[in-house]
Amino acid sequence: MRLASTSSCAALASLLAAAGCSIPAPAGQQGASQGVQGQYYFVNLNSPPVGGLVTSDAGLLACGAARVTVDSTVSPPQYAYDWFAAGSAQTDLCGPARIPWASEVTLTATPRDGNVFVGWAGSCSGTSPTCTLSAGADKSVVAVFGPSGSGHPSFSDPALHGPAYGTFLAQASAALQCSRCHGATLDGGAFAPSCAACHAWPLGSVVSGPACTPAVCRAGIECGVMTDGCGGTIDCGDGCVGGRTCGGGGRPNACGGGGASSGLFLDGFFPVGAFNQTSYEMASWKAIGANTVQGMPNLDHEGWANEARRLGLRQIRQPFGSVGAYPPAAGNYASVLSDPDFGTGNVLAWMGVMPNSTSWDEIEYSIGPAASTAQYAINTGNALHALDPLTPTFLNTGINGLGPIASGWPYVGGTFNYTMLLQSIDWVCNDIYPYGGSGYNASELRGAMGGDHVVTSADVATYPLLAPMQGKGAIASIGVIADKQRAVAPGKALFAYVEAGCVIAGSPVVPPGGIRAEMWDAVIHGARGIMVFAYVGQLNRATSDGHGCAAIPAANAAEIRAQSALLTSLGSVLQDEIDPATLDATPSLPALEAGWRDTPSGKYFFVLNTTNVDQGTAAVTLRGVGAATSATVIGEGRTVPVASGVIRDAFGPYAVHIYHLP
Question: What is the pLDDT at residue 10?
């Protein structure tokens, strides 16, 4: 069976890169190699091209086959490649190829056997036969060849759709419909691109198969008003059972929460996550308060999850099998159905991996400013939703600045924006590191970076987007980003990263008070969970992966422990409605920020000094507290008077006070 005879569609490159439609590389080609920042990176041909040859100018890659034979009688399906003959030269050198960090590499696609080059996907894009990859992060590339003029020879051809397509068909409740993959109007959907690039219009005159059948509500799974998959909507009501509530698990239109649901987000559980730590590090992170682990750096993913379960830690991670180590297989998410944590509640949210991620930790989406990359995020989110509608999807946007969000980033041709990017994502996260991030935060934030810096009018004159931070510390950048995310992604649950120690060698290290302030600034601005950023092993030792950072200081670890315990104990308060209209709090000084909750157990106000400067005594004017005359300060063993709705209290450097009133 020749993949070269299956399609000439220029959009097939995107199809192969989309979730559920890739052909895996032969054994040994999807390596576990991961580059080292500043030293070298890897280039990998993620799916060996059939019908043509891809070579690199450095001679490290030469990959192409005349045929691929698919044995679908075994699970997983086996692929046998008939590699092109090239004298004594090999044509199965598909990577990963190790490239010096400062070097570029040019790939050349050469058709064979009368085929034409269709296009690139992954880290390369477009239809030019050459692609130059810039120095930096690891690269994953797909090249597609095909004859001119042919369309689908068979809707069930596994060489066209890949093994995950067969899995999808096996689980489908109805006959194959083009609209299931290509969208209700066949102009691009959850798994595949528009059919128009290959077929005459109107599509119905060419594409066979039944008309779109509207979806029906799945009792106990879906709820509320949602799309019917054919351009309309259906009302699934509120048929959640077993203590689940509509949206209770953090995903709209899905029953979630489980157990004796309180109606709170995550039933009052507040995630404090350790970021990208191996199974060997989990116990140490639990000891300082982590209740969640995010991302799997282990090659032994099952061992990682087993240790998380053993320690009682919740998980935010990829499904097993969705990545090798680096780079990831493009959209192989069908493995979620056989994941041992599927449906158990152990996984709070599923993550995906970008094929051309700039992330060195292999678990973030880290979207680059390209429509094809952003479309991949949408496709993978849709794929995960289709397979597991009860579990939310998690995305770290990796946007280190205010301008990109304000301008609708990623912004391609005036049509693709941040809101579109997040349409299939439920939980949204971002990483702003006021102390250690000055080396890579966007230019409009650099005026506020340096941790202890207080934003002045001169800063705002230079960087107008800093206006909301005037008079506040650089810590406030976390909240500013959260506010902008909430504005362009309404209804999405927000999460935030905070720094635990050194982020970049030579940059300032966050002090204990800075950690406290970063956590509570995120909470005040609506974070539903906190992820603590550290390199693998950094809690116990200096980094050994080229980052040049010392171990997390003991005082920082102690602060993480204290604040994690406080956040966890207040989970049922924090996961209630954010800043309800029944209350309000207005500090008298610009350096202070406030948030609040109105709960069955009372009214709570959180007030933070965003600076490392002692602000002395400040007034906080409360609304909605009636004739209250005193407030308890949580965790401080004291009360403060309330006079005509006003609290006066001292706010030292990075102080946070939590006031509780009946």
Answer: 28
Mean pLDDT of 414-418: 47
Q: What are phi and psi of 151, to 5 degrees?
A: -115, -150
Quote the pLDDT of residue 135. 73
In the chain, which segments carry CATH 3.20.20.80? Answer: 268-574
Q: Report H helices in 490-553.
A: 512-524
Q: Are 622 and 602 in contact (CB under 8 A)?
A: no
Q: Give the N- to C-terminal CA distance of the chain in Å, as an integer.
A: 73
Q: Kindly report, residue by residue over 267-308, the tens digit of the pLDDT.
A: 899 999 999 898 889 999 999 999 999 988 766 778 888 999
Q: What mean pLDDT is predicted for residues 488-500? A: 87
What's the mean per-residue pLDDT of the chain? 73
Residue 180 to residues 60, 165, 176, 229, 597, Cα–Cα distance (Å): 40, 11, 8, 8, 42
- B/e letters for 487-523, b = 16+ CB within 10 Å, e = fewer, are ebbeebbbbbbbbbbbbbeebbbbbbbbbbbbbbbbb
Query: Residue 263: which region, alpha, beta or left (left: phi > 0; alpha: psi -120 to 50)?
Result: left
Tell me the longest C-alpha to C-alpha distance in the chain. Answer: 90
95 and 63 Cβ atoms separated by less than 8 Å? yes
CATH 3.20.20.80 is right for the domain spanning 268-574:
yes
Q: Note the CATH number of domain 584-661.
A: 2.60.40.1180
H/E run at residue 282: helix 282-287
Q: Token pair of 500, please?
A: 């635990």
Number of H helices, E strands in the chain: 15, 31
pLDDT tens figures, 144-160: 776 654 344 333 333 44
Task: Say whether pTM exceeds 0.85.
Answer: no
Show the CA angle centred on residue 245, arms to residues 241 and 251, nearest 5°: 120
